[in-house]
Design goal:
5-stranded antiparallel β-sheet, 52% helix, alpha+beta, globular
Length: 241
């Protein structure tokens, strides 16, 4: 298992978006992932660094299955992580026949039994910017346990790396902003896995005030979610995890 601090240090020193993506792949593999796919855009066509062979996404598009995949559809309409897999998707009421077919094929071909999609959306427009999918060989029970224990860590790594990839590709500028000491403190505590109520108790301010600091930090960092704000602040060197 990689140390998050070491991963972030490596991410910040990345000279190219490819370097940042490979660093992310290495981090996820150290967490037990057997497949990692990073992409930009809205339909997975513009895949970036991926552990899947090139023929696989090409095949899904040639057969007109990818854009009907419920995981892909989710990445376009939601900024929340989505768990998927051969044991999970049959119970998802939004699962599509095309998506179920690809989930089964991915398991058969690459051992991707379960996984999670981390979408990335633009803060101002809400439009999808891409995302990261991570797959594991774990059955549903083991995967759910992993997500309960490490899901916040995986989300933070995915968001931070994607922000760095966008920046290094010239698609996202670093906001010219300054976080207040309190905003930095709240983001650091969020990065440590603390909830709003826990931060309120630790810092000695009301929960509504904690939320206000989070909202201000999100606006300054052009972040769509608190997790994205934390990820960008870490990737760009404004806070340390």
């Amino acid at each position: 298992m990689h140390n998050l601090g070491d991963f972030i240090t490596g991410l910040r020193s990345a000279k190219t978006a490819e370097d940042a993506a490979r660093s992310l792949v290495g981090f996820f593999q150290s967490e037990g992932a057997n497949n990692v796919h990073t992409f930009f855009g809205t339909d997975l066509v513009e895949q970036f660094v991926s552990t899947y062979p090139e023929w696989w996404p090409a095949s899904t598009h040639e057969r007109r299955l990818a854009l009907k995949h419920h995981v892909v559809i989710h990445s376009q309409i939601s900024d929340q992580p989505l768990c998927f897999g051969v044991d999970i998707c049959p119970h998802n009421p939004r699962a599509t026949p095309e998506g179920l077919q690809l989930i089964r094929e991915s398991y058969s071909e690459f051992g991707a039994r379960s996984g999670v999609m981390f979408p990335v959306h633009d803060a101002l427009s809400g439009s999808p910017r891409g995302g990261v999918t991570v797959a594991f060989a774990d059955n549903e029970q083991a995967f759910r346990k992993k997500m309960k224990e490490s899901g916040d860590l995986l989300l933070l790594a995915a968001q931070a790396a994607h922000a760095q990839m966008l920046r290094l590709r010239g698609r996202e500028g670093r906001p010219d902003t300054v976080l207040t000491p309190r905003e930095r403190e709240v983001l650091i505590l969020l990065a440590a896995g603390m909830r709003i109520s826990q931060i309120s108790d630790k810092v000695g301010i009301a929960e509504v005030t904690v939320n206000l600091h989070v909202q201000k930090a999100r606006r300054k960092l052009d972040a769509n979610t608190p997790a994205q704000a934390v990820a960008r602040a870490i990737a760009w060197g404004w806070i340390d995890p």
